[in-house]
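In this section we walk through a basic example: taking a raw amino acid sequence and producing a predicted 3D structure, encoded as discrete structure tokens. The instruction is simple. Fold the sequence below.
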Amino acid sequence: VDDDAATATDPAALSREHLLVAAELPTFSRTVSKKCASWTSKKRLLDALRGVRAQFAAADEKLMRREALDDDEQALYEIGSTDDLDEKLKTLLAACKAMVDAGQLTRLEKAAALEQMRERLDALPAGAAKKRSNVSENLAALE
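The resulting token sequence is shown next.
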């Protein structure tokens, strides 16, 4: 078995993130609730899945240019879809937000969340008044 060839037929070769990409949404949700109990673990998974989403986007761009996918890109396409992954990202983001809203963050997690919100607020253009208002409200609620 080629260790570099991760396919849906060889689940042992898939990373944890890719296994979650391949999972059905209910399985994904159950796994996240059992294995990612903390906000930090959910955020790490969210970041990792966003990386996988970027890989999907790059593969989509190649296909739009009528270029062939390499073996890794093809393997990724065989285990999931961008629509399915987007639903999982929304589910995971909602779980993170629910933890924030319920006050379930540790002191260190709260500090990290506040820092991320401030960075997001600083990065928003001045013309994005509604988005700035939403982030500011969330920031105030967490403080």
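Looking at the output, two observations stand out. The chain has a mean pLDDT of 84. DSSP finds seven helices and no strands in the chain. In the next section we compare this with other chains.
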